[in-house]
Sequence to fold (234 residues):
Amino acid sequence: MMPTKQYDIIFNGEIVDGVDLNVAKHQLAALFKITDEKAEVLFSGKAVTLKRNLPFAMANKYRVAIKKAGSLVDVIENTAAKEPPKTDVPVQAKSVVGATTSSDMPVSDSGINRTDKAEALSVLPVGADLVDSPNHVVAAEVDVSHISVREGQGLLLDESEKEPVAVLEVDISSLTMGEVGADVLSVDERAQPVENTVNISHLALDASDEPLEVSRKVDQPIPDTGHLSLVESH
Fold:
């Protein structure tokens, strides 16, 4: 039976993008139940082993919990060929709950001290979140206490809510109503047509039987048929 592979959690002082450094230090100290002074040593930039000889599933749970706290670690297989640097900073971790992977390949969040095996991708179980710390949308609080719902009848506005409409006064005292069938305009109101005078004194009627226009004969050209001949058919 082959021995179970063991993994170490290596921290190099890397934090998640967008997380304040002081916040990351405080949250890591709270996660491992250490003082802020001891947590300050972990962020020196040197590789520090936070946990040793863990099964891959447990080591990956720590990696997820640490990332949620704002820091990035590497999960490296513990082999005799490559021993991670030691530290004299004691850490005691809380119990953590996180997503595990179906593979026991090393995992790296910071990209430092990454072995060839650590470059392999891990697969989350079905139903796990793809993002460790999803952004939660905060619902906006809208005051609707002054709004009420009216029954489905009547007008939307009460009489007191209606804006007064200015009445336009039009003088129609000069207008009268005509009888049914009467002309809309009186004779005086109608537009008078303008008479056009046309001078025809220079025109006269022709009493003869001659047509008004003599037809012109057009001389048609005689076609040249000298080059044509008749062929007798047999």
Remarks:
- Residues 80-84, 93-102, 112-120 have pLDDT under 50 and may be disordered.
- The longest helix spans residues 56-68.
- Helices lie at 21-31, 36-42, 56-68.
- The chain is about 15% helix and 10% strand.
